[in-house]
Design a protein that fits this description.
The strands form three sheets. Strands 8, 9, 10, 11, 12, 13 and 14 form a seven-stranded antiparallel sheet that branches. A four-stranded antiparallel sheet has the order 4-7-5-6, with helices on one face. The protein has about 325 residues and is α+β, with helices and mostly antiparallel strands.
């Protein structure tokens, strides 16, 4: 029997296992939403596969234990994949079932500090991105860093999703409730990634698979991310030709960066689906590419949207969570 675990809350598990905490379970309303949003992941399953949402884990524990093959959204200690026998000739949707790695490796690769270790050409780096481990370090950063337009900046927890666990502000002072919130984040996580907040002109992502060898790994064409003004994910557009046009001269550069990320993940020991988030912004009066804004060493809705597009006669897809 095969089982798919749609643990879209994997970031909470990684944070709980690898940072001071305490980290509470997601509120019931969020858990219900996560379970609802996980339904499109059934595109990777067969009719007789066991499909488990976060709200069903306790009830289906015995069935999961009996599964011979397990595919998970994100590799955690509690929810691990059990890979199927390898077949590099199989469609990539089936190859997902063949890949798994140690949960500690997945956690390390999803830690936002991992993205800082990727060597990129200077023109693709956003100046002023660093980790801080205390309010004093945050104050020192804000006192001297080059921030975004109107002195905008954002501080993000090492593991979080859907715009949660971050502080987005303008100005160089953190006071009152915002300072208390930053302090709570630092106590729970031990560190935060802080960077200038740039006004995006377009958001993009690249998805792929890190296989047992680099030669058999896959990197798909870039796709468009549909985000709100706060940078929160709202949907995906799979239209390879249109995306190449929108990226223009940046397309080849972005794809080269995605291959570099796949290589770095492989070297770190990660095996499984991955994706990178990127965006275009205006810097010094010209369009610039933030090639690697985030690395997701897990499944993403980019994989879901591409599988949905490939299943259609058109090969394109506008994917939305309805949020």
């Amino acid at each position: 029997m095969r089982a798919f675990i749609a643990n879209l809350d994997c970031e909470v598990a990684w944070a709980r296992e690898h940072s001071p905490g305490p980290h509470k379970e997601l509120p019931p309303a969020v858990q219900r939403a996560v379970s609802e949003f996980s339904q499109p992941l059934r595109i990777f399953t067969r009719e007789d596969d066991l499909f488990v949402t976060p709200s069903e884990l306790a009830a289906k524990k015995k069935e999961l234990a009996a599964a011979d093959e397990v595919l998970v959204w994100g590799q955690t200690t509690k929810h691990r994949g059990k890979p199927a026998p390898g077949n590099t000739e199989a469609p990539w949707q089936e190859r997902l079932w063949q890949l798994a790695c140690d949960s500690s490796v997945a956690a390390a690769c999803n830690d936002r500090s991992f993205a800082l270790s990727i060597e990129l050409p200077p023109r693709l780096e956003l100046v002023g991105v660093q980790m801080v481990a205390s309010l004093g370090e945050l104050d020192a950063y804000l006192a001297s860093a080059t921030l975004g337009p109107h002195e905008a900046w954002v501080a993000k927890a090492p593991w979080s999703a859907s715009g949660r666990e971050k502080l987005k502000r303008r100005g160089r002072a953190v006071e009152g409730e915002q300072r208390a919130f930053a302090s709570r984040l630092l106590r729970r996580y031990g560190k935060l990634l802080v960077e200038p907040w740039m006004q995006r002109s377009a958001d993009f992502a690249v998805a792929g698979l890190v296989a047992n060898t680099l030669e058999t790994s896959l990197v798909f064409p870039a796709h468009q991310l549909l985000c709100d003004e706060g940078g929160v994910f709202r949907g995906i557009r799979i239209d390879d030709e249109q995306t190449r046009v929108l990226l223009g001269d940046h397309n080849d550069v972005l794809m080269a960066c995605a291959h570099s990320v796949a290589k770095a993940l492989h070297k770190r020991g990660y095996r499984g689906p991955f994706g990178i988030d990127s965006f275009l912004y205006e810097g010094d009066g010209i369009p610039r590419l933030r090639a690697v804004c985030e690395i997701n060493a897990r499944m993403s809705f980019g994989h879901v949207a591409r599988a949905t597009a490939e299943a259609s006669a058109l090969g394109t897809c506008d994917f939305s969570l309805g949020c």
